[in-house]
Amino acid sequence: MSHNRSGLLPGLLAGLLAALVCAAALGAAVLFQDRLPGVLTQFGNGLPLSLALSLVIAMVVAFAMGAVRPRNIVLLPLSALYAGGAVVAGQITGSSIMAGTILRTPPDQRAPAGLADVTVPNFTEGLPTALSLYQAPLAEMWAVWLYIAVAALAALCLLTFRVVRVRRAQTAPAEPEPQEPEYRAPFEPAQPPKQDLFTPRRPARD
User: What residue spans carry the region label Disordered (predicted)?
Assistant: First the structure.
């Protein structure tokens, strides 16, 4: 019950679902990058586009986990893990299918990847090639790690801001409800007289 009140379990499920969706979307973007406008893929060697996708993934994961009004700080590092993991999973999935399609297709029959190429044999065939990207020297593949770091850090910052706001809202004292003014008839005094004006007063005793 305490996990539900703190938003831990709903936050975990929402973050996991968002990470899976983002990983699938990024994998599709990697696989079908030849069909994207050349202005996007060629500008800055594709670095701005990849950074923008990392930020979008971070926003989706953080907003999904923040939608349950979380208060548990355990979700903060998990948001970074989900966002960074979504980038890694998307990169590996898209690159594996692309590499497997190239390896399993004769050179004279190769064409841009399509939905028909999204198969398990293509994925397993190209998986070693995709994993080798993370084993290359950092000086050569620094951009791959940059995308992961940007997504993880952005998700961490966004969800931290959300958790702080939720905690402040729950610890702030509740404002008293305004009381409705008492209705009085016209010319009715605000306070009734303590004694009737027409009632004779008793004389004071010595």
Answer: 170-206
